[in-house]
Amino acid sequence: MEQGSEPGVLTITGKWPTRLRLDDQGITVRNALHISRRIGWDQVRWLRDGFWWSGGQGVPASWVLCIVLHNGREIEANATERDGPLPDTLAAIRQAAARHAVPAVLTGRPAHRGQPGPSAGLYVDPGGKLGLREWFGTEWSPYLQVDSATIGHDAGSGPATVRSPVSGREQQRQWDRVASRAKWAQILPAALLGATAIVAAVTLAVFVYALGHPEADGAVAAGLVCVGFGAFVTFIVWLLGKPDRKAAQAAKQAAELARSKDGTPSPLND
Predict the structure, then answer these.
(1) Is the link from the previous residue into 17 a cis peptide, with omega within 30 of 0?
(2) What is the pLDDT of residues 91-147, one digit of tens each?
(3) To the nearest 5 percent, what fractions of the chain are helix, strand and coil?
(4) Model confidence, pTM
(5) Which end of the chain, N or C, is less surrounded by CB atoms within 10 Å?
(6) How many Å from the N-terminal Cα to the C-terminal Cα in the chain?
(7) Pairing of strands 2-3, 62-69
(8) What is the arrangement of strands in the sheet containing 74-82, beginning at the earlier edge strand?
(9) Where are the beta strands (DSSP E) in 14-117?
């Protein structure tokens, strides 16, 4: 990070040619395609942790500053892409935003947007609040991380944690999604296994036929290859669906616990 020589100017230079500049007039973002965009502070709704997928199997996601505009558009500042930003970088961005009354919720962790998966992580609040919330794999945390200034703390300091549970309807919607993913994680392997069994039965019939017809040996070999491939794909699909099935089991228990507390029925199925 390079601190601007002028007061109130922050410049962050990333991998060439990416660059981010925050000054009193606004924000300038230059990403990898040499395209620069100038954003006025009045266009910015809030700044938050972002998620940048670097690509490659086993490569963890990187943190990136996400600029959210009032029109709903989100702009990732590639110059800030890091495995973990330095505390002074986060503090400088928070202070720049605070000078212009722009909320900034920056934890330094990659934050996702959209529907959560079976893995835990930090997400943009599903209820639309300007904050970040933990997803535990089956349910949302009742605590929301918000800009400190919104609850009367010092502007420009780190995020504040407030108790703000998601609505029962939203939580139930997530439980239903977990159950739906688990259902497909059961249906797909079963369907593939059934198809493989049919191919195996056909191959066996061809094998019996080939005992008296040597010209059918090629069909038997092709059938055996298909059976082996089908069994392999079925196993992989079953393995990939294991986290969804485990999450559904935990979600069912969480839904039953919530039902026992409030006395309302839960439509979550096995």
Answers:
(1) yes
(2) 999 999 999 999 999 999 999 988 787 778 999 998 889 999 998 888 889 999 999
(3) 40, 25, 35
(4) 0.68
(5) C
(6) 51
(7) unpaired
(8) 74-82, 62-69, 44-52, 104-105
(9) 19-23, 26-30, 36-40, 44-52, 62-69, 74-82, 104-105, 111-112
